[in-house]
């Protein structure tokens, strides 16, 4: 390991096993449920599950795109599983979640880009669990208006689309996405009256000034909630970690994002885009 690969001491969480976490953990095991929280080994699981919040992945395990920070495999996806939305909703019900984040792979192989799948999952959760908030984290659907309209019509409590990085290095990090196109997805969602959210990953080679500019761009595009996170390299085949952002800089960035006008900000070395998502949403709607 080169020195930059070594994680600094602030990259750590404490395992605090609360009663809600314990209950969910045994339920998930007993019922054979699948969550991103467990399957990605997310270190925030003790906190999120204690709040009855969890994340699900839809669309299968193969993505049609390849982003240089993402641990999901690129390849030919399996056939569309039309029963998946029902099963995810059933998991949310069994887990009695207060807030569920649903994300998935890009399905450029499907004629509708997977729009039905994303929308139907929100509809099924809302149908079974009317009081559970749903945050839908989407790919960009190539900004095809009909596909976005289908997804937005499901009315998730939060519509998230992650920009992830700054324009100068965007193409290298997310070759199948475009910075401006991602901005337009956020703008359309906001125009539809949805609460919008995005994420920036730090440590991919961006400069501090570029981060400030991206925050202003996202806010101007209509993004209301933001998470700012540290990049962790999933494997040596992925983009190297260019820097470890110090906790104090994350605090500064939170203040800066609030000044720019975001109504809710989560910023920190261990933050993920779905970290305490329900709490962030409530904070924003309470304003
Ligand atoms: Fe990962 Fe999403 Fe990029 Fe696919 S589109 S590689 S799931 S970040
Ligand atoms: Fe699950 Fe997201 Fe929380 Fe991690 S941050 S435990 S993936 S909800």
Features:
40% helix; 287 residues; alpha/beta; single chain; TIM Barrel; seven-stranded parallel β-sheet; binds iron/sulfur cluster
Task: Describe the protein.
The chain is α/β, with parallel strands linked by helices. It is built from 11 helices and 9 strands. The chain has helices at residues 19-31, 36-39, 45-50, 84-95, 115-128, 145-153, 167-173, 179-191, 208-220, 247-260, 277-286, and strands at 53-58, 62-63, 73-74, 99-104, 133-137, 158-160, 195-202, 225-230, 264-267. Strand 5, helix 6 (145-153) and strand 6 form a beta-alpha-beta unit. Helix 4 (84-95) packs parallel to helix 5 (115-128). The longest helix is centred in the middle third of the chain and has 14 residues, at 115-128. The model has no long low-confidence stretch (mean pLDDT 95). The structure holds iron/sulfur cluster (2 copies). One iron/sulfur cluster binds at residues 36-37, 42, 44-45, 48, 53-55, 101, 272, 274-275. One iron/sulfur cluster (SF4) binds next to helix 2, helix 3 and strand 1.
């Amino acid at each position: 390991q080169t020195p930059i690969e070594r994680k600094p001491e602030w990259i750590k969480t404490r395992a605090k096993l609360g009663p809600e976490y314990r209950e969910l953990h045994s339920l998930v095991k007993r019922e054979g449920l699948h969550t991103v929280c467990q399957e990605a080994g997310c270190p925030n699981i003790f906190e999120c599950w204690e709040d009855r919040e969890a994340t699900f992945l839809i669309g299968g395990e193969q993505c049609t795109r390849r982003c240089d920070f993402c641990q999901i495999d690129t390849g030919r996806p399996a056939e569309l599983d039309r029963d998946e939305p029902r099963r995810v909703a059933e998991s949310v019900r069994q887990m009695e979640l207060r807030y569920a984040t649903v994300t998935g792979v890009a399905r450029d192989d499907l004629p509708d880009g997977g729009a039905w799948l994303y929308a139907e999952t929100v509809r099924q959760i809302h149908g079974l669990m009317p009081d559970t908030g749903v945050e839908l984290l989407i790919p960009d659907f190539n900004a095809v208006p009909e596909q976005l309209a289908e997804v937005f019509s499901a009315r998730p409590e939060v519509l998230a689309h992650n920009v992830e990085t700054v324009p100068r290095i965007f193409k290298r990090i997310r070759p199948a996405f475009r910075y401006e196109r991602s901005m337009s997805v956020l703008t359309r969602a906001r125009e539809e009256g949805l609460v919008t959210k995005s994420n920036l990953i730090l440590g991919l080679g961006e400069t501090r000034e570029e981060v400030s500019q991206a925050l202003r761009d996202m806010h101007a595009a209509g993004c209301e909630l933001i998470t700012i996170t540290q990049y962790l390299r999933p494997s040596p085949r992925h983009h190297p970690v260019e820097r470890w952002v110090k906790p104090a800089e994350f605090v500064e960035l939170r203040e800066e994002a609030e000044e720019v006008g975001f109504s809710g900000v989560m910023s920190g070395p261990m933050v993920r885009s779905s970290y305490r998502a329900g709490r962030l949403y409530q904070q924003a709607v309470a304003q």
